[in-house]
Amino acid sequence: MNVLGVYRPGNTLLHRLSPGVKFVAMGVIILVMSLTVRTLPALGAATAGVAAIFALGGIGPLEAWRQLRPLLWMLAFIFVFQVIFTDWQRALVVCGLLALSVALATVVTLTTRTTDMLDAIVRGLRPLGRLGVRTDLVALAMALTIRSIPLMVEVVREVDEARKARGLRPGPRILVAPVVLAALRTADGFADTLTARGLD
C-alpha cells in the first residue's frame, strides 16, 4: 500500500466527482448521521445508504470488508465500554456510526488521488492565505490525516494477521502495543518525508 493512500483507479461516478464535492458531501453525511441516527432502524437505513455509496464508487463487498475488518477489535472495545455505561442498543448505534464514518472516509481515499485532494483543500483554504496562513501546509496536514485513516486500518489488519500466524490470543497487549509502535513508525516516516521536501 502506498504510504500516502490507497487510491484505486476507476471511472465511476465517485471517481469523476471533484474532491471538493466529495469532502463536503462526506462532512455533511457524517454530520447528518451523527444528529439523526439514534435507533437501530435508523442505523440500518444509514448503513444501506453508505453501502450504496460504496457501490457508486465501484467498491465491492469484499473490498469494503477488507478495508473495515481491522476496525472490529476497536469497535468491540468501544461496544463493551458503551454497554457498561449505557445499554447494548446505544452501544450498537455508537459503534455503527463510527464504522460508517470511517467507511465514508475510506470511500473518499479510494476514489481520490492525493494530488487532487491537496489541490481541493488548498482552493478551499485560499481565503485564509490573505491572513498569512500557510494554506499549503494546512492542506497537507489535512490530507495526511484523512489518508492515515485507511492506513491505520491496514496496520491493524496486518497486526491481527501476524497474531493469528503466531497462534496468539487476541488482547490489548497483543494488539494495541504493536499498532501504537507501527503508528509511531508511520508518523516518523511522514516527518522524514516532509523534512526531505523542506516542509518541516
Supply the key terms.
single chain; 200 residues; mainly alpha; 9 helices; disordered N terminus; transmembrane helix
Secondary-structure map with pairings?
Layout: H1 13-16, H2 19-36, H3 40-56, H4 61-68, H5 72-85, H6 88-111, H7 114-125, H8 135-165, H9 172-196
Helix pairs in contact: 2-6, 3-6, 5-6, 6-8, 7-8, 8-9
Structural overview:
With 200 residues, the chain is mainly alpha-helical. It has one domain. It is built from nine helices and no strands. The chain has helices at 13-16, 19-36, 40-56, 61-68, 72-85, 88-111, 114-125, 135-165, 172-196. Helix 2 (19-36) packs antiparallel against helix 6 (88-111). It is globular and about 50 Å long. The protein starts with 12 loop residues before the first helix and ends with a helix. Mean pLDDT is 81; it is low at 1-5.
Low-confidence stretches: 1-5
Number-wise, the strands total 0
The level of helicity is over 70%
Order of helices and strands: HHHHHHHHH
Mean pLDDT: 81
Report the span from N to C terminus. 24 Å
Work out the strand percent. Answer: under 5%
**How many discrete domains?**
1
The main β sheet shows up as: none
- Class per helix and strand makeup: mainly alpha
Shape: globular
In short:
The protein has 200 residues and is an all-alpha fold. The chain contains nine helices and no strands.
